[in-house]
Amino acid sequence: MLEISDLVCRYGKVEAIKGISLSVQRGQLVALIGANGAGKSTTLRTISGILPSASGRMVFEGEDITRCSAREILARGIAHCPEGRRVFPYMTVEENLEIGAYLRTDSAGIEEDRDRIFTQFPRLAERRRQVAGTLSGGEQQMLAIGRAIMSKPKLMMFDEPSLGLAPNIVEQVFEIIEGIRKTGTTVLMVEQNAYAALEMCDYAYLLEAGTIVLSGNGNELVHNNHVREAYLGGDGRRHC
């Protein structure tokens, strides 16, 4: 579904992504793991068109999207749920969801999807007319996920969905992401909790200093000595 070849991304003269290649198959949940500053978020921001690539190629469903704008990439079916949630704080929950559907023209479908999100996230339904900036961190994460769903994506990208959330909310968020995958939406996820990401995913890539150094299915990486020592700790469960 998504093929990335020799992707390079720079911040000024600093090369943040150093010629990485990865693929995401339709229906998979693929994880990117690694330490802070490894280039995980930069990779997602480049795929979604927020950051330009210096070189390399990105192909989505057989079409080259390397030079496409963020708007064009969203229109093709790639949604980005960013780190830090980035909800519009002075807009209501309902207005934030409507923003997620701004490229769509199917009014009936938009209303149906909004109602489905309110059914899936009852807390959001209770707060539909509340401004998003007054929601808790967990509620804002649910809203950010719902907003991305409203674009009706084929591929959803999550950047650190568990960051800053209480453990019980983290578990709920992971269940939501797994549910999204089960409905047929492909998922590419950056996650600080390496153990949880590897437990959930079909395939994973380990980034270090802008380079992919390991890849394999989740079980392979959980039992890899380097991953265990550097990212999972002695008990195999440490956050990176």
Please report the total strand number as a whole number: 10
Biggest sheet: strand arrangement: 6-7-8-3-9-10
The SSE string, one letter per element, is EEEHEEHEHHHHEHEHEEHH
- For the record, what CATH class applies? Alpha Beta
* Contiguous runs where pLDDT drops below 50 for at least 5 residues: 235-240
Helix content: 25-40%
List the quaternary state of the chains.
single chain
CATH superfamily: P-loop containing nucleotide triphosphate hydrolases
Mass-distribution shape: globular
Q: What is the total domain count?
A: 1
How is this structure best summarized?
Helices cover 38% and strands 25% of the residues.
List the helices and strands and how they pair.
Elements: E1 2-11, E2 14-24, E3 29-33, H1 40-47, E4 55-60, E5 63-64, H2 70-76, E6 78-81, H3 93-100, H4 107-120, H5 122-126, H6 137-149, E7 155-159, H7 167-182, E8 186-190, H8 194-200, E9 203-208, E10 211-216, H9 218-222, H10 225-232
Parallel strand pairs: 3-8, 3-9, 6-7, 7-8
Antiparallel strand pairs: 1-2, 1-4, 4-5, 9-10
Helix pairs in contact: 3-6
Structural notes for this entry:
The chain is an alpha/beta fold. It has a single domain, classed as P-loop containing nucleotide triphosphate hydrolases (Rossmann fold). 38% of the residues lie in helices and 25% in strands. The strands form 2 sheets. The chain has a 6-stranded mixed beta sheet, sandwiched between helices. A 4-stranded antiparallel beta sheet has the order 2-1-4-5, covered by helices on one side. β7, α7 and β8 form a beta-alpha-beta unit. The longest helix has 16 residues.
